[in-house]
Amino acid sequence: MAHTAGTFSSLQTGPVRINKGYVYLLSAIAALGGILFGFDLVIISGTVAFFQAHFGLNELETGWAVGCINLGAAIGAIMGGYLCERLGRKKLLMICAILFAVTGGGTGWAENFTMFICFRMLSGVAVGAAALVCPIYLAEISPAPMRGTTVSFYQLSIVVGILLAYLSNYLLLNVEDNWRWMFSSQSIPALLFYFSLFTASESPRWLIRAGREFEAHIVLERVGGLDYALAEQEQIEKSFADKTRSQLADLFRKDAWHIVFIGIMIAIFSQIVGQNSIFSYAPELFKKAGVGQDSAFLQSIIIGITNFIFTFIAIATIDKAGRKKLLQYGAFLLFADAVALSAAFYLQWSGTWVLVFVLAFIGVYSATLGPVTWVALSEIFPNRIRGNAMAVATLALWIANFFTTALFPVMNQYFGMPVTFLVHAGICLIYFFFVRNRVPETKGRSLEEIEKLLQKS
């Protein structure tokens, strides 16, 4: 088997030659789940006016149609933790792919509003489960020196999915029954994702937990050769010395709860620092920046391109600079940017400055907290409880997402933009100190080494 020239030293003697092409292939397949995640969340942005008119919805019903996906995602996160451990990572990814394909067409061709809501919530279940299992799978198949990069691909794939959704909405805008075809277009990448998974390997860590050591050895050997496979398999088997099945109660054990707490905080802070306010209510912010009211598509493209470009900074630096450093830098820069936005609104600076600070906020988030959050969550939890712990963390993430998105217009109405962004600035500063004091650096360590490090802390 031909290996690329990537090398590193693990517990075994001598350097290991990593088959980077194979790792990147598996990463690309799993990242398709991220594309569908981003696509599914954003595709509705171009359909609202059309399905609202078709079903004759009032404002409350329209809000429910847009927001119900978050409830579905929370359900998907809860179910995903159980299914991830019982069925395996690969099978859950295949279930997500099927759900994405079915719910895309189902939402688009729903005969009534009740059916529309049901399919939209099922689509949310797929989003929530995919958000849980994709980062876990990417972390578990990646060698330590590549793990930050490969898991960051997941955030990049979400960004690509968002861009594809904007593009799909634009191209289908003048088609008859346009909103139906906009939703249905999701089924094409979903089917591609499903059939691609037949060529993917199962996570070697899940295989060892399931007693399928020989299959795990084959995957590990293909990743890094015989010496790498033997050393990694020994470490993984030691981490599973306790053969009892993971239960939710295990998350609250003395040796695990502090790790789970760190993961929950990382998930929550990733959603409340202010990016949801900007992503969800960009038109209002850009309107204040002097951008015309008829340029919603341009606004979306500007945000999407900025998001896309700056994600590459994280991919290029995360395995060099490390997770903790990027989270710290990101939190502090977002704090400074939120203060600047507050000042710009309070002092009524020109719209150009508001535009600059909004795009800077998106850029910083996309280069730091956005992708690093998924990397950190995928690797800090011990092997034995990873599925359930990731379920709790992503559930907290979706709940935080829902409340911050819902509270922004209320805060803006009662307190105004200056106070709203000062609140976000305060949250960013709190997160900076939390990362500095509680979050360990995990770059370059195997998942089993991280587990030992955190259990000692």
UniProtKB/TrEMBL annotation:
Bilayer topology annotation: Multi-pass membrane protein
Where does the protein end up? Membrane
User: Which terms are listed as keywords in the entry?
Assistant: Membrane, Transmembrane, Transmembrane helix, Transport
What are the transmembrane regions? 21-51, 63-84, 91-109, 121-139, 151-173, 179-200, 256-276, 296-317, 329-347, 353-377, 389-408, 414-435
SUPFAM superfamilies per UniProt:
MFS general substrate transporter
Domain of life assignment: Bacteria
Q: What is its main location?
A: membrane
One Pfam family of this chain: Sugar_tr
The Major facilitator superfamily (MFS) profile domain is annotated at: 26-443
The similarity comment for this entry is: Belongs to the major facilitator superfamily. Sugar transporter (TC 2.A.1.1) family.
What PANTHER family does the annotation carry?
A: D-XYLOSE-PROTON SYMPORTER-LIKE 2
Recorded protein name is MFS transporter
Q: What is the lineage of its organism?
A: Bacteria, Pseudomonadati, Bacteroidota, Cytophagia, Cytophagales
